[in-house]
Records
---
Amino acid sequence: MKPRAPSVCPVCGGKLWVTGLVCKTCGTEIRGGFEQNEFATLPPEQLEFLRMFLKARGNLKELERALGVSYPTVRARFDALLRALGYQAGADLETERRAILDALERGEITPEEAAERLSGLGR
């Protein structure tokens, strides 16, 4: 696996800005300030989950089988991915938190699954 370019400053934690690109074929260099797309800033585990999601053609049940985890866990990881990409509003966090606690109370998920899903909400 090739090394991955960092997206966060190791000193202050700020977002890094790309300032140069080089063509691998002819060596042409382009200098300037470039935004990274939202996918480039995902942590490796969320990027891998996104790849698997695409390979499964968006089928969460297929992901459940491929990952060997429960459907609620797959759903929690998917929701965390959406939040990391900025596709979910803050009000949705409280709704999801309440749904996790309700599922735990009904015995639909284990305390470990609830803890994993709750910790994924803050990402």
Note: The mean pLDDT is 85.
---
Amino acid sequence: MYSARSGYEIIHEIGVRAIRAKSMRQTARLIELAEEAGFRVNTPRNPERRGGVVILDVENGKQVTRELARREVLVDYRPGAGIRVAPHFYTTDEELEHTVEEVRQALEAVMAT
């Protein structure tokens, strides 16, 4: 219980509304970046219907996720859905751009093998 206390303090300091607003903005931006890169997105476009994650459905998603882990990009793979990207309140907009670019590069690397 004590180990979770500092997390609650940070959330209280930032505010749940502010965290949700940033999440909605960043997931919208992530969807936009992914679609610009040509990735299929398995996440509702309506912000009222989505949570704080974006699912990218790319070919060979499981292998791409392994390559992303090797590159120290923190995502996970959900069979039947795709690569789950979950920005948090501490995630920068630049990290969103970096993640989509890394997915693109990882996909190219996987397809080349």
Note: Residues 73 and 99 are 7 Å apart (CA to CA).
